[in-house]
Amino acid sequence: MEKHASKVALITGANKGLGLEIARQLGQQGMVVVLGARQGKADAPAAALRAEGIDAHAVELDVTSAADIAALPPYFDQTFGRLDILVNNAGVQLDDGPDVSPDTLRQTYEANVIGPYAITQALLPLLRQAPAGRIVNQSSILGSLTAISQGQGGSWATPGYTSSKAALNMLTVVLAQHLAGTDIKVNAAHPGWVKTALGGDDAPLEVAEGAKTAVRLALLPADGPTGGYFHDAERLPW
Ligand SMILES: NC(=O)c1ccc[n+]([C@@H]2O[C@H](COP(=O)([O-])OP(=O)(O)OC[C@H]3O[C@@H](n4cnc5c(N)ncnc54)[C@H](OP(=O)(O)O)[C@@H]3O)[C@@H](O)[C@H]2O)c1
User: Fold this and answer.
1) 176 C-beta closer than 6 A to ligand 1
2) Are 63 and 119 in contact (CB under 8 A)?
3) All domains in the chain, ordered by first residue
4) Which of 80, 124, 138, 202 is found 20 to 30 A from 71 (Cα to Cα)?
């Protein structure tokens, strides 16, 4: 496939919430956006974005499915000849108290840690070919050992979600170090507390605001940071 003229971005968990809004905002900046979601759920949101004038596509992607992940490199290679931006946004918050079962912990790690790791690993060869590859891991301040150890997590500081985001943070650091000297930047984002299915109705931020950190990191210039953890432009403590 001849290389598409515009930059191409994959956003996981893009059927609703922050993922859909990140896709919208990247699309508004002229990117081709590919919305990943499970069970055909990306089709309607991708069509809605196209109706807004955005070049949006849908791809079947359960981030815990090895088959879906294996299909990604040939899809991007054959459809666009490139991939420039990967936003690992899909995530789950399955525990709601201090006593998470091992099965729930495992399920949480499958979606929040192993999925992003496997997707990144599968797509790295394409991202390496991009002139300005960007990887954004949608983390949370709840993954900060500093914030949680200072008591900032409150009742949200449950073992499964927090430790999975801390693990995602470490993957961000290690990958950024591994890719030092390349054109790829890898950073972790905290969107703020945002009104979504996961964030709940009491959250102070609307999705348009919450999407901004990941969008900013996806569009970092060549002299921008890598291996960092950010909310807006503010660097967060690990
Ligand atoms: N909202 C907040 O305040 C907040 C704060 C900090 C961090 N975050 C992070 O932001 C990200 C997006 O969350 P959100 O707030 O937008 O919540 P959301 O509206 O619940 O969206 C979560 C998205 O992840 C998808 N997802 C979950 N498991 C998946 C899987 N196995 N395969 C593919 N997609 C999967 C969901 O798809 P389905 O519809 O199929 O379930 C949905 O699209 C998450 O990583 C979350 O941890 C959110």
Assistant:
1) no
2) yes
3) 8-235 (3.40.50.720)
4) 138
